[in-house]
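Exam revision sheet. Question 4 asks you to relate a sequence to its structure. Input first:
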Amino acid sequence: MALWRCRTASSILFNRILRPPPPPPFRNLSSAAAGLVHDQSTIESMKRDLLNLDVNSQIGSCMPLASMRIGTIIHNIEVNPGQGGKLVRAAGTRAKILKEPKSRYCLIRLPSGVEKLIDSRCRATVGTVSNPSHGAKKLRKAGHSRWLGRRPVVRGVAMNPVDHPHGGGEGRSKSSGSFGKTSRTPWGKPTKCGYKTAKSKRRK
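Answer key, structure tokens:
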């Protein structure tokens, strides 16, 4: 009898866990407004706690830019909210928050020195990417690059015109005659960071 009661109680508990009670059919406007006020108060309390905490204790934490303070070192930054980290992900890189993210956009200085406005709802990770000595590592011999899966690279100037835009011609000329083209990939795309998409004022 006791075993049967234990089995019945465990099955009831299991069903409650798997099948939680349905939500209420509707909420009135007053409860919705109260929930919004509660969310705003929670965000304000989080900001106050972050001001009192040491930044080093938050290293590795992922949170929206609106919850961070000025001068925070961050990496793995989203460009659009909920899209996932897109910026500052290489080894040893980091970015810095330049202005207090009080408005919709937050001003961030990227590793290239460019200052970019990013939506404050985007998330980022506090701290710097590990392995900062990745760029200083030297390969011991030619076979070391093959161990890493890197195949040899042949210059386009040494190819034929059918194989590369730089191929052919008398001498070592990338312009392919009198056309005056810039350096290009084997598929004709400009080699210097692709086509220019940023405004010229920012590049100056």
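Marking note for examiners. The helical segments are 2-18, 29-52, 142-147, 200-203.
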